[in-house]
Amino acid sequence: MGKVFLVGAGPGDPDLITVKGIKAIKQSNVILYDRLVNKALLDYATEDTRMIYCGKSPNKHSLTQDEINELLVKLSLEGYTITRLKGGDPFIFGRGGEEAETLKNYDIPFEVVPGITAGVAAPAYAGIPVTHRDYSSSVAFITGVMKDSVDEDEYWKHLALGPETLCIYMGVKKLPDIQKLLVKHGKDIQTPVALIHCGTSQKQVTVTGTLEDIVEKSHQITNPAMIVIGEVVKLRERMSWFEEVASEQNVPQLIY
To answer: Which keywords fit this entry according to its UniProt record (predicted)?
Structure first.
């Protein structure tokens, strides 16, 4: 029987992976890695480690989630030590929970190695704290992509007057719909918004605005990107730091 490490690779900057995550990579025979994992992290593996790409882009999946689950089981039963390397944190929109359930069903040993999620890291690198004593005491991590069975109107109604900071993953293409639904259900149209593309990398681009004008400004931003909505976005004006550091230092690039 082998073993599986469900490892969060962090948001992009390869220096943000945990020490435990690096240890898992180094001891594995097989690594199954996702699209938003910085490939520089694969250099920690031994030369004979087998690499399997499991990336999913919005319109194309190299492997379905069921196929990934089946592969984890098959390789584990063959005795391999596996690192399932996932962008960000495996349990925050990483479908790591489904993989852990599958492994548990087959009594396959596994460990979860948390990672820094983009919902925290990208705003931080843009100079935006997701909580702040004077602006926000609550934050929600939200997906912009949901099952067909979900009532989107009710979904965004629940969030419009809920947490003070909204961090939205996979939502750039649906930004016009998100904006309309939040405003429809009572979110102030002057609420600050930030769009952060490729957070924590040299490719990072941040665009700010309000719910009133952010859709017009969003044409510069493509996936992968985080949407941050809330008063904390105002702090970027005096807390922005990464752009200056990146221009002075050799900040690691995102290698996809």
So the answer is: Methyltransferase, Porphyrin biosynthesis, S-adenosyl-L-methionine, Transferase
